[in-house]
Design goal:
Layout lengths: L3 H30 L15 H8 L1 H26 L6 E3 L10 E3 H13 L4 E11 L2 E10 L5 H19 L4 E9 L11
Parallel strand pairs: 4-5
Antiparallel strand pairs: 1-2, 3-4
């Protein structure tokens, strides 16, 4: 998942970009119409001689280069913020201290929990992972259920698997989330009478 800071920066950047594009669009319409606004009109042709003259000044050229480097660094940071994988590979277990630490491979633990949940009647498949979502550890199980599945039973089993996961890992800071997707086509379920 993406952090709150990254989301905030994305939204602000999008707002600024939308404002700039809207202003450019309005300026283009004004130029195309040839109308006066507050007693002034845009010229029929444009000239870049002022820009060329300004860029001949070494201070302006170095300033433009510095701005370009800053923009490139910000863009690189933005890309890296979106490429980071939120998956956690190891979890420190209760009982870790100065003498040593106990760790569990998060993928293996969640794979076992997902397999236990997949054995539930009406669950077609499940997979799990531990992710860092907005600063919190979340044990996430993504499951596909049959369209005819008993949701009460599936929800009860999800609660059981989440409680077992908490008992096994012993971490109070780990939240559990079970996300369900309904399969497009159902398979025949065994009926117990």
């Amino acid at each position: 998942m993406v952090s709150r800071t990254t989301l905030l920066i994305d939204r602000l950047a999008t707002l600024v970009l939308v404002a700039l594009l809207a202003a450019a669009g309005l300026a283009g319409l004004w130029w195309w119409s040839g109308r006066e606004v507050s007693g002034s009109t845009l010229p029929a042709t444009s000239s870049t001689t002022r820009v060329a003259d300004a860029l001949e000044n070494p201070a302006v050229a170095w300033g433009a280069a510095a701005v370009a480097v800053v923009v490139a660094l910000v863009a690189l940071r933005w890309i890296l913020a979106h490429l980071t994988r939120p998956t956690v590979s190891r979890l420190r277990l209760e009982g870790s201290g100065d003498d040593g630490r106990s760790e569990a491979l998060a993928g293996k633990v969640l794979s076992a929990a997902a397999d236990a949940f997949a054995a539930t009647e009406g669950v077609r498949s499940a997979r799990g992972s531990v992710v860092r979502d907005r600063g919190e550890l979340v044990a996430r199980i993504d499951a596909t259920i049959e369209p005819e599945a008993d949701l009460t039973h599936v929800a009860q089993r999800a609660d059981e698997v989440s409680a077992q996961l908490h008992d096994v890992l012993g971490r109070d800071d780990l939240r559990a989330a079970v996300r369900l997707r309904v399969a497009a086509r159902g398979r025949a379920l065994s009926r117990v009478h």
